[in-house]
Specification:
Layout lengths: L4 E5 L3 H12 L4 E5 L5 H10 L2 H4 L5 E4 L10 E4 L15 H18 L4 E4 L4 H12 L6 E3 L2 H16 L6 E2 L2 E2 L7 E2 L5 E2 L2 E2 H6 L5 H12 L1 H9 L6 H15 L4 E10 L5 E12 L2 E5 L6 H24 L4
Parallel strand pairs: 1-2, 1-4, 2-3, 4-5, 5-6
Antiparallel strand pairs: 7-10, 8-9, 10-11, 12-13, 13-14
Bound molecules: 1,4,5,6-tetrahydronicotinamide adenine dinucleotide.
Keywords: NAD, Oxidoreductase, Tricarboxylic acid cycle
Pfam family, one: Ldh_1_N
Catalytic activity: (S)-malate + NAD(+) = oxaloacetate + NADH + H(+)
């Protein structure tokens, strides 16, 4: 059986980490693509030289030519400009929209059967635009944000309750931005919902509210510390988890930016919701019951995504 082919569009911080993880996990052969000459080739060579030490024999190549992503099974897109301190995700819109156009066309021409995971910010708008430019079916194009946001939420909750992260299951809905909706009611420690843990005196509403807020600004906190770029280890790990769910038909229920057609009262938008990922890509959007506050928060998030799309359409009238 031929090995899977993983194409990574963008060979920056996340792209390089994705390649490293994909090689270590033996997901398949890897192609790193970037517009900058030398960088994908250099990273591919460096990563290939991990093989003898780690004992992997994935073929890792770097390229500036879309023809080399031909027939990729999974494509993870990080191409674009990363957020700098003081720059909002939305400032990135104009630049990254042009990048999505080039990437979408490259995918359409070379790998129309791939499962495509978009990571580039502003995520909810970029995944929508990438789907439009690539013309792939909606179930094959998905955005990564919720897996990362809920990983951040889980990390903070594990610290708060002083338990292993393995005991924590948390849920984040909505757009990837300051309007994301960490859903406290559906977040648990060893199956016990957070509100019950508050009642048991294990934490307080104020402390959980602060964790929710820290999760919402989790990306910004890291940008502020790094000063020259944004988070990349956890974003890459999160993207790989989604790729594995597809490649191994795991039917994992993951929060992803998925195309909605009426679910949650939203039509023709990509919004972060729980979905089942398996061999057909996004196999199901799971509609969970939300209380009034979560619904109102989700609506704020949906409105923010809508506003971004209006701005996208203003910049590129082919959308
Ligand atoms: O949760 C999430 N979705 C995110 C998103 C979490 C963290 C970071 N997130 C976003 O991912 C971030 O705001 C950026 O938009 C992307 C990629 O982040 P990364 O940290 O990897 O950025 P880099 O290191 O700047 O890498 C971007 C690469 C760089 O090598 C550029 O040369 C390349 O993208 N680039 C392109 N590649 C291909 N094609 C085009 N047109 C192109 N333009 C730039």
């Amino acid at each position: 059986m031929a090995r899977n082919k993983i194409a990574l569009i963008g060979a920056g911080n996340i792209g390089g980490t994705l390649a490293h993880l994909a090689a270590l996990k033996g997901l398949g052969d890897i192609v790193l693509f970037d517009v900058v000459e030398g960088v994908p080739q250099g990273k591919a060579l460096d990563l290939s030289q991990c093989g003898p030490v780690e004992g992997f024999d994935a073929k890792i190549t770097g390229t500036n030519d879309y023809a080399d992503i031909k027939d990729a099974d999974v494509i993870i897109v990080t191409a674009g400009v990363a957020r700098k301190p003081g720059m909002s995700r939305d400032d990135l819109l104009g630049i990254n929209l042009k990048v999505m156009k080039a990437v979408g066309e490259g995918i359409k021409a070379n790998a129309p059967n791939a499962f495509v995971i978009c990571i580039t910010n502003p995520l909810d708008a970029m995944v929508w635009a990438l789907r439009e430019f690539s013309g792939l079916p909606h179930n094959k194009v998905v955005g990564m944000a919720g897996v990362l946001d809920s990983a951040r939420f889980s990390h903070f909750l594990a610290e708060e309750f002083q338990v292993s992260v393995k005991e924590v299951n948390s849920f984040v809905l909505g757009g990837h931005g300051d309007t994301m909706v960490p859903v406290v009611e559906y977040s648990t420690v060893a199956g016990i919902p957070i509100p019950d843990l508050i009642k048991m005196g294990r934490s307080t509403q104020e402390r959980i509210d602060a964790i929710v807020q820290r999760t919402r600004s989790g990306g910004g906190e890291i940008v502020g510390l790094l000063k020259t770029g944004s988070a990349f280890y956890a974003p890459a790990t999160s993207g790989i988890a989604m790729a594995e769910a597809y490649l191994y038909d795991q039917k994992r229920l993951l929060p992803c930016a998925a195309h909605l057609t009426g679910q949650y009262g939203v039509d023709n938008l990509y919004v972060g919701v729980p979905v089942i990922i398996g061999k057909d890509g996004v196999e199901q959007v799971v509609e969970i019951e939300l209380d009034a506050a979560a619904k109102a928060n989700l609506q704020v998030s949906v409105d923010a995504v809508k506003e971004l799309l209006v701005a996208c359409k203003g910049i590129d009238n082919s959308l």
